[in-house]
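Fig. S4 source data, part A: sequence.
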Amino acid sequence: MFNWVRRIARRRQDASLAMTRRISGRGSQLRPLFARYDAAITNPDNYRHWANADGLSADAAASPEVRRILRNRCRYEVANNSYAKGIVLTLANDTVGTGPRLQMLSPDPVANRVVEREFNRWSSVVSLADKLRTMRMARAEDGEAFGLLTSNVRENTPVKLDLRLIEADQVATPDLTFTEPNAMDGIVFDESGNPIVYHVLRRHPGSNGAVFDLSYDQIPAESIIHFYRCDRPGQSRGIPDITPALPLFAQLRRFTLAVIAAAETAANFAGILYTDAPAGGEADPAEPFEPIQLESRALVTMPGGWRMSQLEAQQPSTGFGEFKREILNEIARCLNMPYNVAAGNSSGYNYASGRLDHQTYFKSIRVDQTHIGLVILDRILSAWLDEAALIEGYLPPSLRTLDADRGHQWFFDGQEHVDPMKDASAQATRLTNHTTTLANEYAKQGRDWETELRQRAKELQLMEELGLGMDATVTKVAPQPDPQHQEDQEDDAQVDQTDSDY
């Protein structure tokens, strides 16, 4: 191996020297010129580290067999590792929350309210929020999730549209050959790279008796929703989000088992007989490597010349907590998740640290929510409106024309502030200074400002009818000084200073 490395280096040196001779001036002294990157050098010290680096394309690197292995290992880890399960669940819950809410933005306010009400009712019937959380979890441990837009006649809504989830294993082409340039395992593309047909196995390859059943259906791309993260140009299938953390999960479990084994060894009374007498000395004979059963709470007589010493566990269990923190921090980094969210433990955090760490995490959540809105929810809403427009008298006339304005936006659950009083004060200041709007402030909480204002108007009208004024319902309480709150304010000031530096 080392000879091969030397030969490669010698060839590069000879080529560089020849080039120098060709471009050097007359009578000048020949000097070899080398222009290189240190990271591109292969030597005996880093050969093993870079041995698996390759130049495969995105689809070639994510071959069907590679994706199958990654899916199986990720599922196994999530099913058997409490941290992995909690991280995936937390990610899905924070991203989807209780489910998206629709706000229509067409010029007809009456039509907007009708669509919002009926779509919300349909979403509850088909359990759209549950399916979105499942798809987000599948992307984390399977790399991708598929949804089939189909019809369900048993739904208790006028629109019979339904979303049937399909696992990544089932989207495959058993008879795919490498001579088809516009086909990837399970997907056929047109000349522009757009998916036109998906191949869906009629039976899951992991189900009983499905080994010999290779039949599949060719479903048009208009009926399939493919949810995955594209990390490389030209990538057609997804890789699990937790792939970089798989070796770390294994290390965490092995280290935990080693610490437990060391603690059990130290807790159990185990010892060894030894003697200081030389070989052939005066010590009584003893059978080597023969186990001796010791009775609990009893004195034991040793053979003459022999002594007993208890075994001590030398494993450094004192660093167990620190090791777990570092490993979990590295595991969560590939998901843009802070340590306290991944571990479910904020005991080592103060207010400022929590806010700083959560900023990156919640930005990542908003990116995922936008991706879900574009890839999944917009497709579902378009299909829902197309079917609803065919039902006589179901939608207002303004939304049943071909050129109807279908402008809309999606709201997800907002992130609660750790200090509601401070957040409310800042919100009031922004509204007073006209640096924000009610629509923006309600959107941060995942609510529709028009719906909230109409509800508030109803409440005020009813309070007026019942003779309940604002002074009778609001009691002002003088704030009490709180040392912890004072410390949090100082930390918050440090965070604001840090944000201004950025």
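Fig. S4 source data, part B ends here. Residues 62-273+318-415 form one domain.
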